[in-house]
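Case study: histidine kinase.
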Amino acid sequence: MVRRAWAWWRAHKALVDLVFVAPLLLVSVLSVSAYTAPPHGAPAGPIPEPVYAALVAGLLLPLVVRRRWPVQVFLWIAAVSFGQWLFDVTVILANMGVLIAMYTVAANCSFRWMVTAGLIGELGAVLAALRYTVEPGARKYTVVMLSAVVAGVWILGVYISTRRAYLRSLEERAARLERERDTQVQIAMAAERARIARELHDVVAHNVSVIVVQADGASFAIETDTERARRALEAISATGRLALAEMRRLLGVLREGDDAGSYAPQPGVAQLTDLVEQIRGSGLPLDFRVEGVPVELPPGMQLTIFRIVQESLTNTLKHGGPGASARVRLHYGDEAIEVTVADDGRGAAARDDGLGHGLAGMRERAAVYGGSVRAGPRAGGGFEVVARLPLREEARST
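Here is what the predicted structure looks like once written out:
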């Protein structure tokens, strides 16, 4: 209700100002006899009725549009008042329109016009005191009194202007913070989508590659070696279940209201042994060694190492060709951890479909921890991936 009333108030400024001026206009009309009748005339003499009506209209009616044209209305009313002073026409109640117009300028216009309106108002107070004060000795008191009134109205207008500027700055700041918050949310959402895309790529590409290799082996051995074909089918079944479980865990973060604690933990360095056994089970000869003194690593860095090894071995399965073998080295140094995955497959001769995101994903994962990834064909044949992840001080001291 309050908001609707305020919106209506702001949308009908002229009508609101007319209602505001109406009491003063009504009192001025009812007081016509006090200024036009000779017995009750002011010190400067009675005012003819046409002149009085023109003064009331010229001083009060422009106030209806004071907020639309504050400077023009103030200058007009000040000019009418100055003409009134110049022709020695007595002050009337409608001259309060000067104070209202001055307040409007001080509350709505720039600092230059604030000061100008204040100086004009002060000049009018001095001129009115000098012209309309009957006792010469009382003129200085009249000047002080009128100046105090003008200064009070002007200060009130400046205060309102400052208050409005402060509220506008708060609204702009709140809007800016809201935009920044929305931007941060969008950035976080985009980063999360990219992370999930990398995870899905790693999971799907690796497990599907293993399934394809096992399926090819089973198709060749199904008539000559049924036991080997059976083991290959079992490996396909286990790999498929593992892939489904990891995909459910990754896609679960997109559901609202689910319990994050119900998902399996992210794989780490400890799961590299299981990964190696899975790859060996798919028919790829693999040599895995850990060198140096292992240290405790953050879960995110462990996941990065696991995914780099997984993606590299997946590429070997996809592009290494028949008869390829691979080796994995996880070296714990004093300053960094180095992961090396090399194979003796096709290397530079392997065909790239251009659809994968594996190498880009490796580099992005390593960059999070200030590391780097170097990948390319080996000089003697095959392909090699070398990732280097710096160790933090707390990890080196563990």
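For the exam, be able to explain this: The longest strand covers residues 336-343.
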